[in-house]
Amino acid sequence: MTDTLPIDADLEKSIRAAGLRVTAPRLAVLTALQSHPHTSADTIYADVEARAPGTALQSVYNALSDFVDAGLVRRIQPAGQPMRFEARVADNHHHLVCTSCGHVEDVDCVTGEAPCLHPADSRGFAIAEAEVTFWGMCASCRNPAVS
Amino acid sequence: MTDTLPIDADLEKSIRAAGLRVTAPRLAVLTALQSHPHTSADTIYADVEARAPGTALQSVYNALSDFVDAGLVRRIQPAGQPMRFEARVADNHHHLVCTSCGHVEDVDCVTGEAPCLHPADSRGFAIAEAEVTFWGMCASCRNPAVS
DNA sequence: CAACTATTTTGAAGCGATCAAAAGTAGGCT
DNA sequence: AGCCTACTTTTGATCGCTTCAAAATAGTTG
């Protein structure tokens, strides 16, 4: 079986299920997200250009925004860096962000059920989501190839 | 005693202790941060204008940046919103951010020692800091005064 | 296939933050 | 006290990312 990643037919279904029209830009964007998790709009745009030449950058933003609204894609926005997007939305995982190069990696929450994600005093807030970000230096930034 | 908030003399000491020169813009910025926690550079600028007329916006950014580098101030950057700054740096607390109005509140970590702040697999990262943000709707955004 | 509406495109503007160089000033030293 | 030097402020411009707006295009339903 080769269905390790959703194939186009599945992507099309996802888009349709979200109540959105299936268009070339949207398919291209969603496909790009499968192969490159945690990418910026810019990088996605480059990838989309290859799959659907002539697609406008604005359409990439549109598609991403629509997907986020529809819950198909998650938007993460590390401080001081452009937005990044990922297709992994089902589970509640967190992110390691490199303060040097901006590289992002997924981390599953150690405790599964996220114990500290329910603050004692929510100050009248209706909490919708808890986000955990770990800041540090990634392996390659710590160990640049010595020349 | 009226020393509920650090007074100017203390602020001056803090700045000096950080190895920075004491200037009017810096004092004004640090003072503004005492009274208005979680404010954006813009808001701080407005406050500073009153205390030290003629101060440039750039100087506010400079001062804030220097303070952050020196560890006197913490920079928080909620997704989709301008940077905010707070003078509370000693303890490890987290933030509630209103998705509607952007209002930020402090929350102390329930468990004190932040159990989920040590991911099982750090993927080669040298983790410097863990940041927890709760997203939701604040009380006033949930309950707008019924007209 | 026609019509309606969502979506894409194009071009531009907006915003917050940052850069760069010149003018000014705090703090140490004599 | 006054000078000197390095650090800060100021001024003005610029930059990158994202969003806005209106016209053109294309997907979907009946």
From TrEMBL, chains A, B:
Keyword NADP included in the entry's annotation: no
CDD domains: Fur_like (cd07153)
Keyword entries, A-Z: Cytoplasm, DNA-binding, Iron, Metal-binding, Repressor, Transcription, Transcription regulation, Zinc
InterPro entries, sorted: FUR, Fur_C, WH-like_DNA-bd_sf, WH_DNA-bd_sf
Record keyword Signal present: no
Localization per Swiss-Prot or TrEMBL: Cytoplasm
Protein family membership: Belongs to the Fur family.
Name this polypeptide is given: Fur family transcriptional regulator FurA3
UniProt organism field: Microbacterium sediminicola
Organism placement in taxonomy: Bacteria, Bacillati, Actinomycetota, Actinomycetes, Micrococcales
Gene of this entry: furA3
